[in-house]
Structure formats: C-alpha cells, structure tokens
Amino acid sequence: MGDLDLRRLRYFLVLAEELNYGRAADALRIAQPALSRSIAALERELGVTLFERSRSGTRLAAAGELLRDDARELLHAAETLQRRVRLADREGRSLRVGFMPGLIVTPVVRRLEERWPGLRVDVLRTSWTEQIEALRDGRFDASFARRPFDDEGLTVIDLYAEPRVAVLPIDHPRAGAGGVLLADLAGDLLLQPPGFIPEWRGASEPPTTSPTVEEKLELIAAGRGIVILPASTTRYYHRPDVTYARVIDLADTTVCLAIETRRESPVLRDLVRIARTVPPGNFSGQAAEGGQVADADAASVAT
Helix, strand, coil: what percent of the chain each, to 5? Predict the structure, then answer.
C-alpha cells in the first residue's frame, strides 16, 4: 500500500461535502478534470470506490463515508504537526502567546522582549473554547488562560484568582443587587456551555452560543439569557442596558499560564519566571500607574 497523498485527501473532503464535482472544483479553485483525476488516483491508491456516480448525482459509497470521518482527523493531525515543526524552527526568534479577554499581558511581553533582543512576541486574543485547543494544536506557544480546562499534558502556573460576576439585562429582577446566589439565577438561561460553569446545576447546552463577549452582551441586553464572567473582563465592557452582580457562592476563577509540558526552552522558562513576578493588578488593569514589575529569583522557576 502506498503513502496517502494529503492533497488528494483535502480534495476528497471538499467533494464529500459538496457531492458535486463542479461546485467542489470551484471551491478548490481547480479545473473539474483535475479534481476527477485526483479522486480517481485516490481510489486506485486505496483500492476502493469512494463515490457512487449515477444520472441522479454523486453520493458517498460506504468506504467514502468511513474515509470522510477519519480523513478529517488525519488532516488535522498533519496540520498540527506542521505547526509544531515551525514552532521548533523559530525557537528563540518568535513566540505566539494567547490571552483571554480582560487580561493585560503587555508587562510580561515587554519584559520578555527586553531579555531576548530580536525576539518577536505576537499576542492573540482567544476564547474559552480556543485557549487550550490552540495551545495543543500548535497555534500558540503559551496561553494566559482561565480555569476550568483539561490540563492533561500541560504545565500550568496559577498566577492569581478573581471573583466571577453575573451579567444581567438591566430589567432583570436582581439588577442592582450587590451580589446574587446561583439559586437566584436558576430561572435564567445560561448562554454558555455547561462545562464553563460546572457549579451551575441543570444547565443545558444553549440554543445560541456566541464566541465573543460583545455578542454575548447583545444577547443579554435582548433578554435572551445571562452569562458568568470574570470580574476583570467586565471592566472593559460598559453598557447602559446590562448590569453586573458578583455571584457570592461561586468560587473565584484562576488566571494561569499554560504551556505544553513537552515544550522546553530557555525562552519559555523566562516567560514563566516573568509571569510569576507580575502583580495581579497589572494583568487586570488595576495596577498603580508607573508600577514596576519586580524581578524574581531564577532558582524559583519550575523547569
């Protein structure tokens, strides 16, 4: 059996989605005969029929349905491998760091670049769903993340904790309250996947999810439901049609720095060391103006 051609697998997946050679060729920006030759070559490689063609159209054969599911995972693994190789190649020259909304990582970035002349640190805003996924698949070298998340295979450095608040529409019965209990919110729809707030008993997957804080606020203002956010995130979003109340019986959320355990380099060790020295107020924008980042004893850095 020969090696699989990843390009042909990509072509196959597009055709499996479109089930029309013309539309698939347009989506891939190649000529239709080239697509047909590529699919035929893939079928010869595998020794199976992937598509059944008739006057009524094109549909997946049994082998094609199996390949469609497995090919997605294979291509994802191949893309992850390519990103990881590129990460290793640019070691010491560039770093890609993710950060959650509400966090300020500029003090860490500046200090790291000062210590490594010529190093370029790119910071990328992330989300609850991407903060660890992008780390695992090689899009990030490190991630300033918020728990909870699965930390298997990760080195996680807890930096500080902060309260969580409920974001409510201005006409909510508990609007204006200094604090609320989870029981006070039991009749509201949580506009977040249940895994983000595991303490919320009986929460179900919401019919509408939004990847950004701005979109969530639009839904809340419209009376569609509520969300729970870290206190620092709410400092950057002020609207007259929503209000905030601390959730008294929710434990504080932890802000941390996550790096894959198998990643080991002097730059990443320095990143950990510097992040540990930054006061919590610097991350959340509450630090006194002109505050300095203290240095740390290098012996205290976990390798």
Answer: 40, 20, 40
Q: Which helix (H) or strand (E) holds 147?
A: none
Let me know: does 69 contact 12? Beta carbons within 8 Å: no
User: What is the distance between the alpha carbons of residues 199 and 286, in angstroms, rounded to a whole number?
Assistant: 28
Start-to-end CA distance of the chain, whole Å, equals 43
| Span 137-146, pLDDT tens digits | 888 999 999 9
**Residues in contact with 84: Cβ distance below 8 Å, sequence separation at least 6, in sequence order:** 138
Q: Does residue 202 contact residue 252 with C-beta atoms inside 8 Å? A: no
How many residues in total does the chain contain?
A: 303
What pTM was estimated for this model as a whole?
0.64
Q: Where are the alpha helices (DSSP H) in the chain?
A: 6-18, 21-28, 32-46, 62-89, 106-115, 133-136, 213-221, 231-234, 266-277, 280-284
Which amino acid is residue 46, in one-letter code? L
What are the backbone dihedrals phi and psi of residue 276, each rounded to the nearest 5 degrees, phi first?
-70, -25
Question: What is the spatial distance between Cα 194 and Cα 268, in angstroms, rounded to a whole number?
Answer: 33
* % of the chain at pLDDT higher than 70: 88
